[in-house]
Amino acid sequence: MPGKLWNHEEEELLRRLWDNGIRDLKVLSEKVKRPEGAVREKSKRMGLRVVVEAPRKRVTTTPVPLEGLVTHEEALKVLAGVLAKLREPGQDKVELQRLRILVVALQTYDSVLEKFERWSEIEKRILEMDEKIAELQKAQKMQA
After folding, report:
1. Could you tell me the pLDDT band of residue 44, with boundaries at 50, 70 and 90?
2. pTM, entire model
3. What is the pLDDT of residue 18?
């Protein structure tokens, strides 16, 4: 259901505020005494780009510090130990199966750890970018 129609004075006020550098949706909404959604839609129709503040609640999904995880180096040391054990003569079938399971588990673990580290780095960069965006938006509000 559409809201009340904008009159010429309200449109002119919105245009003047925007021309004077006020681009924050919340501020514009307060100045023209219209809901943010109405100002956003009217601004779109008028070809004006407004700044919408993103929600600030961000929670990392990566538990840091990574206590208890085996590092790549530690996994390689275990693998070296497995290889040394495989060189020893006289291994029975059960021991060979156990060593094989260790090799497969270490390969899988190392692959998953590598992916986890990449995602952790990506997430860290995204959070840093969010902080920079928030700082820029704050500086833009201060100029308005």
Report:
1. confident
2. 0.41
3. 85
3-state secondary structure of 51: strand
Q: Quickly tell me which residue has 């929670």 as its tokens.
A: 59
- Kindly state the greatest CA–CA separation across the chain: 94
In which band, very low, low, confident or very high, does the pLDDT at 98 lie, cut at 50, 70 and 90? confident
- Going by pLDDT thresholds of 50, 70 and 90, the confidence category of residue 66 is low
Are 18 and 28 a contacting pair, CB within 8 Å?
A: yes
Residues in the chain: 144
Contacts of 84 (CB under 8 A, 6+ apart): none
Task: Please state, in angstroms and as integers, the Cα–Cα distance from residue 13 to each residue in 6, 25, 50, 104, 123, following that order.
Answer: 11, 14, 14, 68, 41
User: Where are the chain's structural domains?
Assistant: 8-46, 72-143
Burial (0-12, 13-18, 19+ Cβ within 10 Å), 10: middle
